[in-house]
Write a structure and sequence with these properties.
CATH architecture of the largest domain: 3-Layer(aba) Sandwich
Low-confidence stretches: none
CATH superfamily of the largest domain: Aldehyde Dehydrogenase, Chain A, domain 1
Mean pLDDT: 96
Number of strands: 18
Radius of gyration: 28 Å
Largest sheet: 7 strands, mixed
Number of domains: 3
CATH class of the largest domain: Alpha Beta
Bound molecules: nicotinamide-adenine-dinucleotide
Length: 501
Amino acid sequence: MASASSEEQIKKIVEQLRASFNAGKTRSKASRVKNLKAVLRLIKDHQEDIYDAVYKDLRKSPQETQNGEIDEVVNEAVHFLSEIDKVVDPQNVHDGSLILFGREAYIHRDPYGLCLIIGAWNYPIMLTLMVLVGAIATGNAAIIKPSELALATAELLERILPKYLDEDCYRIVNGGAEVAQTLLKQRFDHILYTGSQHVAKIVLRAAAEHLTPVTLELGGKSPVYVDNTVNVGVSAKRVAWAKLMNCGQTCIAPDYVLCHADVKEKFIEEVKKYMTQFYGENPKEHEDYGRIINERHFDRLNKLMESQKKNIVHGGKSDRTEKFIEPTVFDDITFSDQIMKEEIFGPLLPIVSVQGADEAIKLINSGEKPLALYVFTGDKRLHERFMKETSSGSLMFNELLIQATVPALPFGGVGHSGMGSYHGNFTLEALSHKKACIIDPRPVPSELVMGIRYPPFSKTKKNITSMLTKVYSKSERRFFYGIKLIIVVALMAVALKLVLA
Ligand code: NAD
């Protein structure tokens, strides 16, 4: 892999990109718009190359690459192109406090500077380009370190990105863990890392050296609870689809199912039916069924499958030469089984029997906070219970995965599943600093009021200063607006009288 792997080369790239940011190359509205459009062009021109590269890495079908990766990046770019004024222009704020009387208050979104984007392999286009789109929209420069495990996509990005974006502002640096660690030794102004908890700790430690803020997009075990009040067929169909997308290698994939004992047999039968309906009797030959990313992950999954052999009720076949793992369902799993001790990240679906929502909530809360929690129920009272009694990156009722496609929703974890969030306007929170700005356009007349703050102090000055800085209640604010209105009307009446006189 052609890459800038030596420390000297990486230092030089960091210096170049920082210099470009400091020179203001990435900040203007015009340059942000130009670069967002360039990303859209890159995708349009290289759509087939992207399909091919992701297929080579994960045997992902073009439709999954389109819907799960390309569409996300395009939607994000279109979102920021249509919102660019709101992103770049200072936002006027006025909370009615007296201290702002006659002055202007703004929030200005400052780009952080130089961002480091470290991507994971399972969605190698979305986890790099979607963050890059956010970095461009917020006016940052960025270095992107794609995952070395999705090598074909990483190499494609390194080859095509410079044709569309200024390499002095946005750069792909390819390589493995050592390259990532060399990058992490440098000072960045923000790091957005996607991947495992283990590496997230390395990233966080390195960031602490430079007091660099981080967004950590991690994973973990995302549970599904299936209640006995739900349409079992639709629930099973949706769970089977979400589990097998990208061969189970999706961070928000359902990891395991807590199934109400009353409907468990039916649920398992329906899951088996849909798994077969989607990928046929022989999924190895099905053109839409993906593969495990590498031998290490294949061996890990195969071992998990072996350890639960007695529980297999569907599937169970594998082939190391092809990194193929059959969609597999396990019945009668308990929390002490090996398969419940780590994130599965593959097409294996364990089913745990529970007596109802109380037990499900208790079991969910006994583990780390999940990235996603899915509840299938026809009982509306459970909506509020799960919202209030559990904590997770996202919570969905009777649906799966689509939370990642809605720009109005934040995407991120909590606790061990992540830190911070992005997508849509939440990317602004992640990648820019909200700078508080106040403008006093007429400092001389405003001294008449503000002069009260200077020493020598007195009781009256203290009381008036408190009045100026006081946060007023809603009714007090209404009272002030009323007074203001009366003064304005009175002044207008006087002016009118003078004009007519
Ligand atoms: P990975 O192995 O591709 O690693 C991610 C990145 O970390 C890569 O760029 C890699 O080069 C770098 N890296 C690896 N070892 C390193 C080290 N020692 N020091 C510095 N950098 C290092 O991906 P992974 O970790 O296997 O990712 C899978 C995990 O990511 C799963 O837990 C999954 O749930 C999670 N994930 C989360 C999201 C999300 O958006 N929340 C998305 C995708 C994946």
